[in-house]
């Protein structure tokens, strides 16, 4: 297969490198200087340091996005959520399957849209989907095994994603519930900030297990309200990615929570990462969307208020613990 990966951050680079051992892959960077550096060093030192890129991986910049996509069997959008709308706009008339890797709700505008909802607005004719699931870029790039989920309403997109990425180190499962897969990937980032805070404040393992479990419940409530299937949240993009991101110190979102617990400002915590932390960017949009649907999301709401400077870490914990008793299953 021929693949184009648009976005040379940590995850785009890791997936492109992984697929390049079996397919013809081009990694496209929007910054020509970054592309030239990656090409010269055969390493993406800025976003994925210490990983030698396979000689077969081509690096591009400058080529217009639609032109490069038209030459491929599958186009992958590997930007953060903030870049998804413009990328989909550029790819609107692409006849090949397109999939994004971004995990979040759109933070700009007032609607707080998921990726497939943005696509329905700007590129409705596209056959599109998402590749998601528990995956730290560094581990995949180090050759460690992982499992992902390819979600789309179009069988051809699911098949293209499985064909491109399923292999020795990656198992790729297919799912037609794109809403469920997108909600899981977005909300786990917000919950990972909460778990980082919990661990940074040394609240203990009991508290962390409670946060993960009740977080899964609120993720599922929002997803079901948006039309997702509840069982999707028991899969790789729900429980799987939540456990990984909430407990794994490679997570940027979890690291933000740890830093906030130590007294860092949101600006310092996110600035120190050098990478995107989608949970920070979309927490407010998640809460606003849930409120419009009448869905209760107390953990996400506490994270959003903390990030907005309305609440201190200890006060957020006290507020969550002071909530009225409630049945476990509603
Ligand atoms: N890193 C991971 O382990 C991982 C795993 C799974 C999914 N993801 C998701 O993939 C997406 C990308 O994450 P990442 O880790 O590669 O990010 P990153 O911070 O490592 O890199 C982001 C890349 O996107 C580019 N970029 C930023 N804004 C852009 C825009 N508006 N238009 C085009 N390009 C833009 C940057 O120049 C950079 O190359 C995120 O939504 C993230 O949640 C990341
Ligand atoms: O580093 P994070 O917190 O953005 O998480 C990365 C991946 O989404 C984990 O699956």
From TrEMBL:
One of its GO terms (biological process) is glycerol-3-phosphate catabolic process. Residues 2-154 form the Glycerol-3-phosphate dehydrogenase NAD-dependent N-terminal domain. Signal peptide: none annotated. Substrate binds at residues 103, 252-253. Residues 177-317 form the Glycerol-3-phosphate dehydrogenase NAD-dependent C-terminal domain. Pathway: Membrane lipid metabolism; glycerophospholipid metabolism. NAD(+) binds at residues 7-12, 137, 252. Keywords: Cytoplasm, Lipid biosynthesis, Lipid metabolism, NAD, NADP, Nucleotide-binding, Oxidoreductase, Phospholipid biosynthesis, Phospholipid metabolism. The active site is at 188 (proton acceptor). InterPro entries: 6-PGluconate_DH-like_C_sf, 6PGD_dom2, G3P_DH_NAD-dep, G3P_DH_NAD-dep_C, G3P_DH_NAD-dep_N, NAD(P)-bd_dom_sf. Sn-glycerol 3-phosphate binds at residues 103, 133, 135, 188, 241, 251-253. NADPH binds at residues 11, 30, 47, 103, 137, 252, 276, 278. It is an enzyme of class 1 (oxidoreductase). It catalyses: sn-glycerol 3-phosphate + NADP(+) = dihydroxyacetone phosphate + NADPH + H(+); sn-glycerol 3-phosphate + NAD(+) = dihydroxyacetone phosphate + NADH + H(+). One of its GO terms (molecular function) is NAD binding. It is found in: Cytoplasm. Its EC number is 1.1.1.94. It comes from the Bacteria. SUPFAM superfamilies: 6-phosphogluconate dehydrogenase C-terminal domain-like, NAD(P)-binding Rossmann-fold domains. GO terms for cellular component: cytosol. Catalyzes the reduction of the glycolytic intermediate dihydroxyacetone phosphate (DHAP) to sn-glycerol 3-phosphate (G3P), the key precursor for phospholipid synthesis. Belongs to the NAD-dependent glycerol-3-phosphate dehydrogenase family. This is Glycerol-3-phosphate dehydrogenase [NAD(P)+]. It comes from Ramlibacter tataouinensis.
